[in-house]
Amino acid sequence: MTETAKSLSQQNRKQLVALLVGIIILFFVCLLPFRLMALWETFFPNDSVLQVGAESYLNIIYFCRLLVYVNSAGNPIIYNLVSTKFRRAFQKVLRLYCCCCRKRLVLNRQAISVTSSHGTRLTTMSHYTAIRQEQQDTCRRVQDTCRTAHAV
Prior knowledge:
Blueprint: H1 3-43, H2 47-52, H3 54-82, H4 84-97, H5 99-113, H6 118-151
Helix pairs in contact: 1-3, 3-4, 4-5, 5-6
């Protein structure tokens, strides 16, 4: 193995370890209160809930539930911060499905297709024009949905 391959392998291993440590810490920090709450409800009598108070008890439950959601939302953030492969793949997916990015991608493909042969260019341009029209229709529907939601 060459030196560059060894250093690349070592860098990938460090990224993997950092990723796993981050995911595990987030998991325990976010799910520990939920598990403690479940243990409390299981092993302590129902009178202990009355001692805490109904409002405080519900606030604790809502906080525990929020932390479970934070755990799920935090995983992709940690992946993005640590993994360059995840970052590249995520950017690729965004470019494919984002309205604004996809429109640019379609326009770039049309410009590239002009250099092809005449028959291919017409087929390619009509295909990407149909995709662009479909994408614009989808964006309009999403905007209309957002306007309707804000009006209500």
